[in-house]
Specification:
With about 300 residues, the protein is α/β, with parallel strands linked by helices. The protein is built from twelve helices and eight strands. The chain has an eight-stranded mixed beta sheet. The protein starts with a strand and ends in a 16-residue tail after the last helix. The relative contact order is 0.11.
């Protein structure tokens, strides 16, 4: 694989693109509009700064980021050079046909909106080269639900990353019933080549491994808030102090982004209230209020918390 295309320039899309470019691949990010470009470029700059900070931290003997360097092979100057090379080399393209031309792997990283994903797959279907493998980074939509819109069921699967990819360097590789083992293995090897710990998932599971555990945790925290049980800071402190975890649920939600959280919650609002223990309608209203006020999370400077 040489040319990698990331479809979408959100929080994770920019992180994925940067990590892949850092690992030496030719990377293009496809965006829908010029407005998207003005939002994506600052995100790339923010990711660049995060890599530099992580490298400086490692140089001082602090927290290690295995997505950036193996302990045995760490060279500060070399890592910093790779950061600058990645930042300068990433291409942003608005023309979908041009972006996809010659792609070996396309990573779809759009928001958790089924119709938006379906539409982009239908647009890409006849533009992709026959060799191109297509993966989705969707957090909550099973790849089998999207496979029929891709025009390449055998070359379609899921490749899911954790946020802060340079330090939380896991890549969940999940096949769906139509995926050919050959392409599954190729994506596993690709994940390893970009300094990820590949976690193969041979059977579809909503939420993969990480989110199967994380999403119920976030729902529980939001439920406590919308039902007036307690406040954001107290709920987060209860978790951090009680478990030793570095972040509480609302800190995690701010990093993930409230738009993504909103799209996930919306999918559950149709579940009858007598079946679920969570107040999903209350969560939907709360998150929409934040989004309408421009409080999108850490990327916008404010979500449940304020950021400088």
């Amino acid at each position: 694989m040489k040319k990698i295309v990331v479809v979408g320039g959100g929080v994770l899309g920019t992180q994925i693109a940067f990590q892949v470019a850092y690992s030496g691949y030719d990377v293009t990010i496809w965006l829908r509009s010029k407005d998207s470009t003005s939002r994506t470029k600052p995100k790339l700059e923010s990711v660049r700064k995060s890599y530099i900070n992580a490298i400086n931290e490692m140089d001082k003997g602090g927290v290690w980021s295995f997505g950036i360097s193996d302990v045995k092979g760490f060279n500060k100057d070399n890592c910093l050079e790779k950061v600058e090379s990645a930042y300068k080399s990433i291409k942003i393209e608005l023309d979908l046909c041009e972006a996809l031309s010659g792609a070996d792997l396309v990573i779809e990283s759009m928001s958790e909106d089924f119709n938006a994903k379906k539409d982009i797959y239908l647009k890409m279907k006849d533009l992709l080269d026959s060799k191109t493998i297509l993966v989705t980074n969707s957090s909550s939509i099973l790849p089998s639900k999207l496979a029929k819109y891709t025009g390449r069921k055998d070359k379609f699967l899921a490749l899911h990353f954790a946020n802060s990819i340079w330090k939380n360097n896991t890549a969940e590789v999940m096949m769906q019933k139509y995926t050919d083992d050959k392409y599954f293995d190729e994506v596993v090897n690709f994940a390893k080549s970009i300094h990820m710990i590949a976690l193969p998932i041979k059977k579809e599971k909503a939420g993969y491994l990480l989110n199967s555990m994380l999403i119920p945790f976030l729902f529980s925290a939001l439920d406590l808030l919308v039902n007036g049980i307690s406040d954001v800071e107290s709920i987060d402190k209860a978790w951090r102090l009680g478990t030793g975890a570095p972040e509480g649920a609302f800190q995690i939600l701010d990093v993930v982004g409230l738009k993504t959280a909103y799209e996930i919650v919306k999918m559950y609002t149709k579940v009858p209230s007598f079946i679920t223990p969570y107040n999903f309608k209350g969560m939907e209203k709360l998150l929409k209020d934040y989004i309408d006020k421009g409080k999108l999370g850490k990327s916008s400077g404010e979500g449940f918390y304020k950021y400088e």
